Amino acid sequence: MITAAGTGLVFFTLIFAERKGWLDPKKVETIIKVGMMAGICGAFLYFIHTLSHFL
Fold first, then answer.
1. DSSP summary character for residue 23
2. Number of domains in the chain
């Protein structure tokens, strides 16, 4: 729960900084894409790890 809230806070902060003009929109897009890919890979590795306990 804390991880989900922290991730949401980071994304909202990025959106806020982009709208204020502090960050380039291309940088924000790259950060979000890399973050989503890392999250998906982490979830997949956790799933494989959990699945290995049942085999």
1. S
2. 1
Domain ranges, residue 44: 2-54
Give 1-40 pLDDT, tens digit per residue.
677 788 788 888 888 888 898 888 888 888 889 988 998 9
Q: Is the model's pTM score more than 0.85?
A: no
Structure tokens given for 20: 């204020």
Those residues whose C-beta lies under 8 Å from the C-beta of residue 14, and which sit 6 or more positions away, are 23, 28, 31, 32
> Which amino acid is residue 5, in one-letter code?
A
Could you tell me which of 2, 7, 52 has the C-alpha nearest to residue 32?
7
